[in-house]
C-alpha cells in the first residue's frame, strides 16, 4: 500500500545510546510511533499498562501466540516478551513510522517475516568508547559491565545482517541521520505500488 | 571499503525532469560527480570531449569492451554508447557520489553487475502530467511526443525493478529528496565493513 509508514527495527549494543536516540526522534518529529511490547512479567513500581508494556497474564499471552497476534516473541527468565501486531500495523497503515527497539535475534526474526522492515544497528565508533561509556555511568559493578561487554562481543558477530549501521558518536547528528534515513525509506519502490499501477494503467492509452 | 561514494543510477520517462534534478544536485552540493558516457558518434557543434561525452573511435571503443573497461554498453543507431569504469570507480573510491543517468536496460545491467548501485526512477505524479509537460515544451511535433509517450508506456512496465521511486511534482522538493536519499545510502552495512571488522576485532578482548 502507498503512504504506509516505515517499520524501523533498532538494535545496538547496551550503552550505544538507542534509548536517547529514539526519545529524541519522538520529541522532535510527529511521524513516529514507538512500538510497545507485551509481557507476562509483573509491572514494576511506576510502570503503566500501555506505556512501558502491555501487561498480560500467561494465559492471555499464549492466546496471542495461538492467534498469531505477535510480530515476534521470546521467553526470558521465565517470562514472555513479544511485539503485538495490532499496534504496529495499525500505526503503519495510518502512515506512522514505527520504531521498534529489540535485540538481535528478535530483529532477525522480524526481517524474515516482514522483509520490508528496515534493520538499523546503532554502534559507538569503537569498542573502547563503548567500554568508557558503560564505565562512565558509574551505576554498575565491574561484573555487570563485563557481562554487558561480553554480550556486545557476541552481538557484534551479527552486525552484518543489518541493513544500516549508524555510528552514534554525536547524539544530535545521529538523531538527524536516523530521521533522514527512515524518511528516505518512504521512497522505496514497494511503497509506491499503487502509484506504479495507476501510471501503468493510464499509460495504456498512449 | 568504508567511506566509498554511492553509485546512484537514475532513470525516468523522457520529460520527467531528470536532467534538471541532476544539474541542481551538482550545483547545490560538492559531493557529486556526473558520470560521462563514451560514444563513437561524432561530436556535435559545441560538444567538448570529456564534458558531454568521451568521444572514441570504433576501434578504441571495441578495445574498451575487450579490456572490460565499461560498466555497461549498448549500440544505438549504429553507434556505441557506454559507461567507462575508470571514471566511475575512481570517483566512488575518492568518496564522491556518482550520478549516472541511463535508460532502463542499461540500469538493470548495472544493478546485476554491481548490486551496490542504487536504482532511482523519476516519474511525474501521473501519466497525464507527463503528456502535459511534453506538449507544453512546444518544441516537438505531435508525432515525436506520441513516440516519447509510447516509449514511456513501455518503460513503465519495469518501474518495479528499481529500488526507489521519486515523484517529481515539485522540483526543489524532489532535488532535496534525492539528495537525502543518496546520503542516507552511506549508512548501508556494506559501506561499513571496515568499521564492523575493527569493532569485532577490538571486542575479542572483552
Automatic annotation (TrEMBL), chains A, B:
Swiss-Prot/TrEMBL catalytic activity: GMP + ATP = GDP + ADP
Domain called Guanylate kinase-like: residue spans: 5-183
Keywords, sorted A to Z: ATP-binding, Cytoplasm, Kinase, Nucleotide-binding, Transferase
E.C. designation(s): 2.7.4.8
GO MF, one example: ATP binding
GO CC field: cytosol
InterPro entries membership: GK/Ca_channel_bsu, Guanylate_kin-like_dom, Guanylate_kinase, Guanylate_kinase_CS, P-loop_NTPase
Locations listed in the record: Cytoplasm
Residue numbers binding ATP: 12-19
EC class: transferase
Family label: Belongs to the guanylate kinase family.
UniProt xrefs under NCBIfam families: guanyl_kin
HAMAP family (alphabetical): Guanylate_kinase
Protein name as catalogued: Guanylate kinase
Species per Swiss-Prot/TrEMBL record: Clostridium fessum
Name of the gene this protein is made from: gmk
Amino acid at each position: 500500500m502507498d503512504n504506509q509508514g516505515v517499520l524501523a527495527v533498532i538494535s545496538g549494543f547496551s550503552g550505544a545510546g538507542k534509548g536517547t536516540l529514539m526519545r529524541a526522534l519522538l520529541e522532535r518529529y510527529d511521524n513516529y510511533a514507538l512500538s510497545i511490547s507485551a509481557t507476562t512479567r509483573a509491572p514494576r513500581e511506576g510502570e503503566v499498562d500501555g506505556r512501558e508494556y502491555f501487561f498480560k497474564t500467561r494465559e492471555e499471552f499464549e492466546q496471542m501466540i495461538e492467534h498469531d497476534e505477535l510480530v515476534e516473541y521470546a521467553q526470558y527468565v521465565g517470562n514472555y516478551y513479544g511485539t503485538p501486531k495490532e499496534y504496529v500495523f495499525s500505526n503503519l497503515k495510518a502512515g506512522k513510522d514505527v520504531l521498534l527497539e529489540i535485540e538481535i535475534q528478535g530483529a532477525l526474526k522480524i526481517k524474515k517475516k516482514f522483509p520490508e522492515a528496515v534493520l538499523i544497528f546503532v554502534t559507538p565508533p569503537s569498542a573502547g568508547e563503548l567500554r568508557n561509556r558503560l564505565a562512565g555511568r558509574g551505576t554498575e559493578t565491574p561484573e555487570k559491565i563485563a557481562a554487558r561487554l561480553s554480550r556486545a562481543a557476541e552481538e557484534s558477530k551479527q552486525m552484518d545482517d543489518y541493513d544500516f549501521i549508524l555510528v552514534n558518536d554525536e547524539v544530535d547528528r545521529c538523531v538527524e541521520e536516523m530521521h533522514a534515513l527512515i524518511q528516505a525509506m518512504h521512497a522505496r519502490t514497494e511503497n509506491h505500488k499503487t502509484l506504479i499501477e495507476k501510471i501503468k494503467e493510464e499509460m495504456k492509452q498512449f
